[in-house]
Prior knowledge:
The structure holds two protein chains of two kinds.
Chain A: H1 5-29, H2 33-50, E1 56-63, E2 68-74, H3 76-99, H4 106-125, H5 129-147, H6 154-188, H7 197-202, H8 204-213, H9 217-231, H10 240-243, H11 249-258, H12 262-275, H13 278-301, H14 305-325, H15 329-360, H16 376-390, H17 396-414, H18 420-443, H19 462-480, H20 482-497, H21 514-529, H22 533-546, H23 552-574, H24 579-600, H25 615-633, H26 637-657, H27 661-682, H28 695-716, H29 726-739, H30 744-752, H31 754-776, H32 785-797
Helix pairs in contact in A: 1-2, 1-4, 2-3, 2-4, 3-4, 3-11, 3-15, 3-19, 3-20, 4-5, 5-6, 6-8, 6-9, 9-12, 11-14, 11-15, 12-14, 12-15, 13-14, 13-18, 13-22, 14-15, 14-18, 15-16, 15-17, 15-19, 15-20, 16-18, 16-19, 17-18, 17-21, 18-21, 19-20, 24-28, 25-26, 26-27, 27-32, 29-30, 30-31, 31-32
Chain B: H1 2-21, H2 26-47, H3 77-108
Helix pairs in contact in B: 1-2, 2-3
Amino acid sequence: MTPESSIVLAAVVLPFLVAGLTPLLYRALGERVGYAGAAVAALCFGLLATQYGTEGVVEVAWIPSLEIALQFYVDGWGLLFASLASGIGTLIFLYSPSYMHGETGLARFYTALLAFMGSIVGVALAANLIAIFVFWELTSLCSFVLIGHHTGDADSQYAARMAMFVTVGGGLFLLVGFLLLSIVAGDVLGPAAAFDLTAMLENTDAMESGLRERGYFLPVLGLLAIGAGTKSAQVPVHFWLPNAMAAPTPVSAFLHSATMVKVGVYFLGRVRPLLVGVEWLLLFATVGLATMTVCALLAVAATDIKELLAYSTASHLGLMVAGFGFTSIYGAETGVFHLLNHALFKAALFLIAGIVAHEAGSRKLSELGGLRRDLPITAAMTVVVALSMGGIPPFNGFYSKELLFEAALEASHYHDIGALGWIYPAVAVFGSIFTVLYSLRFLSLFFGERPDELGEVHRPAIPLVAAPAVLTVLAAVVSVDPELAVRAAVQSGVDATAVDPHEMHVGLPTEYSTPVGMSAVAIVGGLVAYPFYDRLHAGIRAVPRGLPPSSPSWWYGSLVDVLPRAGAGLAARVHNGLLRTYATWTLAATAAFALAGFAATGMISATGLGIEIPIAVALVLVVAVAAGLAVALSETHVAGVLTLSILGFMVAIFYILASAPDLALTQLVVETLVLLIFLLVIEEIPEFDESLGRTARDAVLSVAVGATVFVTVLVATDSRPGATTDVARYYATRAVPEGGGTNIVNVTLVDFRGFDTLGELAVVALAAISILTLIVMRSGHGADPGTESGTEATDGGDDE
Amino acid sequence: MTGVILAGVIGALFALGTFLLLRRDLIRVVWGLAIISQAANVYLLAMGGIAEGTAETVPVLEGHGHEIHVPMAVADPLVQALVLTAIVIGFGMTAFALVLSYRVYEEHGTLDVSKLGDRE
């Protein structure tokens, strides 16, 4: 079945459209605008649901004259991700009005949230690389606005900038990767498919050999990995995600756990069939497992419930990346299934954290406990989703984690990777022990002793509980019947991301196997270590304090400190308000680049000059240079002006000798006028004693510029053809028949290129008006009659 | 070899213009601009080739009506049209720069560019 183009387009455009209208809606509806957002998200979800089971490309003409079409590719994997975004979006919009009650800037908040949802649907369905990049960066921009929601709060601003810097910066790497891909695709698949990801995925073998032949395979892999890794908070750039928790909790639940941070993972799944291989395995399995373990450790070190969940999110993203990194079919199954599972349980956990923070008034782990009596429904939900996060059977997180263990074990069967064959599974188990630990710690918020200092805890409003409840029920359904989820959504996602897909089965283990043993070790390890939680917590926290460079945020902080200072230092040197500084840098750089360009292309070889000039012309020009020298050496303004005029008249004679009578006439008129204006002006201003302080330096630069021009004239005029060019011939032969005049230059100016001359006249008229303004409009002072007559002369000159 | 003279002349004019552009006296800076634009015009015209001037090379055709003969040796009219535009624009620029300098002197009482800038 092929998808319906109008429906797909509507699902992408609708959120942006309503986002544009949100400020108006906010005036009409006030805080209830959130429910309008929920309706839009639900409508999007419904539209996407009608496309369930379809697969194919949808094209919308974008710039038909350039044959650029906006392409969307609909398949199980894209639909799964887009539906997660709109489905969870619906719940977030339902939750937000209660949570954000009484906050300011709500119009902006909902606008950004809706635009974000549209971007995610766009990135999930776009098939054109440029469209993917645009939607990709739009999600980062919306995330920036939403993290910085509390505009008065410095921490919030810092976190927003950090997230922007990392994710948008990573997106630029992605863009370079896309361009390399498109170069190869343009060669291998034809120019029409240069930016068409679908075509690339249909011809993976041709693309891979094309990439390897040109040596682009590793660069593309690396660039896409940086793009995806920054977006999905992989080690070593995971640090932006916990900081992003400065955002309001609904944003954290939506962007920073369920959708935006998964864009990287989603995209890895998308390009997996294209780039999969042993390099892919080594890169993504290593990065993913490192992220999973490091962030699980950091989650144990967290003191704030949202911080714990943030590190846990990064850790689970690492799990998904590692899953996709393993090249076997289990790898694809891990990635797709865990993407779904994690979206369900982690969004619910964030919403629960929001309830706790909202009702108990604290987010500190040390200040919270025993909340099951105050929040019984929330506590029941937490049992399901926290144990799911820990990967404890029979909850849904367990199934995807089993698949990861399976994929890690299988890795050595597919590739000869030596010791990594057992290091990967060992690291996966080690990281999982800490996953169990922090999941239990989160659960302990609701159990054990209630601290005395904890004040009264309110009952949460219905919408606050309803949203996580829906997610919890879904997580529970997947827990009870994982095959249902596989049939409904996961299988089609695996088909799109695996190299050779086959039917997927998951379920509770009925007999012992190695992955079961690994799960048992992780769970038992976590339970045994739990009594020592506080000691582990303190131990991990001590590391970055003792050794700051061990934490990436230290590096980020140093970089962010150094850049503005270096920038200010550079600006003070280059941009110091002095004309000569600007002239020096500009001219020196131009000369250097021009000479380097000639040298690089091997142009500097004076083999036979194409241009010869008559002796008379040469003599006149030498006199012009002598006049120029006199201008430079003149001690008074009057002497300079007069010698400048000699130069101008010499150039006029040059024009006569070069068979250009019109130029000579114009030059004579202009030179006369310039002489008059100069004389009028210098009469008004004093002589200037030009000290010879920096003459040497200026002379060096002048000689450099002169030499560059000399070389340019020699090499660039070299290839001049002997006869007149076709264009010149065209004007010469058409002047009389089409322009009705025998003076070719005049006909060209006023007829063939009439609009250019109009533009020129506009420039001169503008200069005349500016001159008039500068002279006449001087606060309160009258104009000098002498210079004004000069201005009139200027106006007269325009008629030329 | 005369091509080298042409290149040398244009190079020398650019060098002199640059030297003047770096002076502290604003009037001399304007002269520098004027010289550089003159040199650029000469270069532009030279790009079209410079032949010994004769009645044939001037791009004004003889006679009227339909019997128009276009000599092969006619100088390139295109560069001439370009340079003509450039001369007029260069004049506008020079005049504007000069009056701007005059206004600067009126406002600040100095023509020393090192005393202008943003640290007043």
